[in-house]
Amino acid sequence: MGRSDAMLLRERMENSMNTFQSMELDDVGWRLLAQLQADARLSFNELGRRVHLSSPAVAERVRRMEQAGVISRYSAVVDPARAGQPLLAFIQLRCALGKCLLKTTTDADYPELVEVHKLSGEHCTMLKARATSLAHLEGFIERLGTHGEMRTHIVLSTQYEGRSVQQAIPERPVTPSMGWS
Hints:
CATH topology of the domain at 87-154: Alpha-Beta Plaits
Order of helices and strands: HHHHEHEEHE
Strand content: 15-25%
Number of helices: 6
CATH architecture of the domain at 87-154: 2-Layer Sandwich
Helix content: 25-40%
Radius of gyration: 21 Å
Structural class: alpha+beta
Largest sheet: 4 strands, antiparallel
CATH class of the domain at 87-154: Alpha Beta
Strand order of the largest sheet: 2-3-1-4
């Protein structure tokens, strides 16, 4: 019996967070990533045509990016509203002592959660949740409330999302604070 996708993803995230090593990508590598992020179903032949490489060269580069963890998985993009989950909320959670969401539950306990981020600062966790209705969201928030104090934000509309990972721009200079040095 194989490990679940969630376990594999968790392991990859832990490995990537612990090492902070990245693969050095050239312009062709970044072009390949852009094409794959736009359409992960492209064949190696089509990818090669788009980035001006042979199919075997593309296959080798993609394999190396997969092995290095640069490409961690392939997935379909699903429209949540059309799939029956039109409500989106962001929830800042400050867990009560001994009731940490990440230590006392699993992903199966809260299928509404689509992202969980550990934070520094006033709140320990930022959650992104989807719901089928306001009643569903209300029940979810009530269950989640057993873990601690929350600040909930219901999304009215999304103006921009889904930016793909792109080549980083050079670091921008920091303006010194006059009178504080």
